[in-house]
């Protein structure tokens, strides 16, 4: 059987165009959407990723400010930088890029990002709002999974969806978004036991574990739609997902590739969220227009 490859590239371009159009609309109103990315690492692949956000922002007409505090930044340095960006009216969206220096906990720092500028849904307040159905920015990666499934007209209501991974940035918010769409969800993690117990009967399997080759062809049915969120850099420098692509191709009905799947859509959504944040912030300044 041939497995359909669900590329995210066309969707990523469509979302980027939407962000571009919204940025032009904001410019016409005298507003200049700006995204700030806070970095504190020497890790080359992180800097490569941040530059890719910067280039995509430029293409969309969004300013991107890289705040590089260096690999020896302290938690206090990072907290001060985040608070300064919160207070800066020219900044609309803030991302705290991981990894952080050893001993600095991202979980504590993300609480400093103002919810209205939290365009990657990192602040626990954003996750809480998502949980109770209040307006908030969902983490872009979790939203990207839903956007890809919608783009390819894959129904979610009443479907049996397995999410592998329960992090606050991917697995949990994605499960909330799927619940909002009336899917029946099972969340797997490192202690949930053999994956095939859950995945064999799943209509949709989303893998977000950060383990290369975790899901293979023996884990899924021929009807399964497999979404690979994982990004793993192999010793030879190549990028692979969490799915053993060679064994899943030919078994599952459809699969998102890595690279060219969820990741490309994620970056475009960060830009779209920035324009949405800029619009919301401008409305909040005009009495009677907030909301
Ligand atoms: P994380 O915080 O390390 O969480 C990984 C999750 O996977 C945990 O819940 C863990 O379970 C679970 N897990 C690990 N090994 C497992 C196993 N053998 N069986 C079942 N579950 C297992 O990672 P994350 O931040 O969520 O990221 C997950 C992956 O997505 C990574 O590869 C990351 O690079 C990628 N990612 C991609 C994008 C994108 O835009 N494409 C964005 C963000 C992240 P426990 O909770 O029990 O430890």
UniProtKB/TrEMBL annotation:
Query: Could you name the domain of life of the organism this protein comes from?
Result: Bacteria
**Per the record, what are the reactions this protein catalyses?**
(6R)-5,10-methylene-5,6,7,8-tetrahydrofolate + NADP(+) = (6R)-5,10-methenyltetrahydrofolate + NADPH; (6R)-5,10-methenyltetrahydrofolate + H2O = (6R)-10-formyltetrahydrofolate + H(+)
SUPFAM superfamilies per UniProt: Aminoacid dehydrogenase-like, N-terminal domain, NAD(P)-binding Rossmann-fold domains
Ordered alphabetically, the record's keywords are:
Amino-acid biosynthesis, Histidine biosynthesis, Hydrolase, Methionine biosynthesis, Multifunctional enzyme, NADP, One-carbon metabolism, Oxidoreductase, Purine biosynthesis
Q: Name one Pfam family in it.
A: THF_DHG_CYH
Q: What residues does the Tetrahydrofolate dehydrogenase/cyclohydrolase NAD(P)-binding domain cover?
A: 139-281
Report the residue ranges that make up the Tetrahydrofolate dehydrogenase/cyclohydrolase catalytic domain in this protein: 6-120
Q: Name one GO molecular function term.
A: methylenetetrahydrofolate dehydrogenase (NADP+) activity
GO biological process: what's one of them? L-histidine biosynthetic process
The pathway this protein participates in, as annotated, is: One-carbon metabolism; tetrahydrofolate interconversion
- List each coiled-coil range: none
Which family does the record claim for this protein?
Belongs to the tetrahydrofolate dehydrogenase/cyclohydrolase family.
Q: How does it assemble?
A: Homodimer.
Protein name per its UniProtKB record: Bifunctional protein FolD
Query: What's the source species for this entry?
Result: Arthrobacter wenxiniae
Name the gene that codes for it: folD
